[in-house]
Amino acid sequence: MTLTIAGLQHDGIAGDVDANLAVIADAAREAAARGAGMLVTPEMFVTGYNIGDALAPLAAPELVDRVAAIAHEHGIAIIAGLPETLPDGGITNSLVAIDRSGAELLRYRKTHLFGDLDRSLFVPGDTLPPAIDIDGVRLSVLICYDVEFPETVRAAALSGADAVIVPTAQMEPFAHIAERLIPVRAWENQVHVVYVNRTGTEGDLTYVGRSSIVSPEGVVLDSLGATDTGLLIATIDPEATRRARRENPYLADRRTDLY
Question: Do you find a cis peptide bond into 173, omega within 30 degrees of 0?
């Protein structure tokens, strides 16, 4: 089995949930028509990311239900970035994975908060996610800054993931993360990496775009430029993961007795 994944690179509409969900619905329709079985949005796409005090009133439980309704309507799995309010009132930078029937598979809360922006808005998650299976393809997820730590992607690879899905909101001056680090993460762990970023500006941030889907050999399968909006699409093949791990035995050759 294989899984074709579409990533939505878009600037979004800061603070406008209805407009952003409409963008997701249009993207889901197009992605399904192009043969994709999953759509991935950027980080915090449902509400906007750098929106300060406007965030808390938007972090409502029904956001997940609204994403699920889109997935069900268009028959496509969706991984969407959105906020989640905790019982104590704290807000997490989260994602939800919904299958094509509209059933929730996973929620993950960003564990590595980036700078004053993240720390002023969010509380961190305290656990890495379990892997999930869709159409026989094993997936793990991270959010933005999480992928910049080698240990997180290594943990996903050791869990047997064929692909690591990474909604992100990567901004200037960090374009080198999208351009250079993401292919390295794929290569060193023999895993596909699906890195889906924003474009445009939001508050004082300028997003760098450059979304990509990278193979376990570090080859870019599809990508978009710094200012492009639209979909990037590639197929995740578990056999490619297995072949890469036979040809590049980093995981098997690790000296875990030393580190």
Answer: yes
pLDDT digits (tens, 9 = 90+) for 110-131: 999 999 999 999 999 999 999 9
Q: How many domains does the chain have?
A: 1
pLDDT digits (tens, 9 = 90+) for 53-100: 999 999 999 999 999 999 999 999 999 999 999 999 999 999 999 999
Tell me if 258 is assigned to some domain.
no
For residue 198, being part of any structural domain is answered with yes
Q: Quote the domain boundaries for residue 73.
A: 3-253
Residue 150's domain is classified under what CATH number? 3.60.110.10
Q: Select from 246, 250, 248, 233 the least CA-distant residue to 2.
A: 233
Is residue 259 included in any domain, yes or no? no
Instruction: Give the pTM.
Output: 0.97
Residues with catalytic annotation?
A: 43, 110, 144
- Within a domain: 204: yes
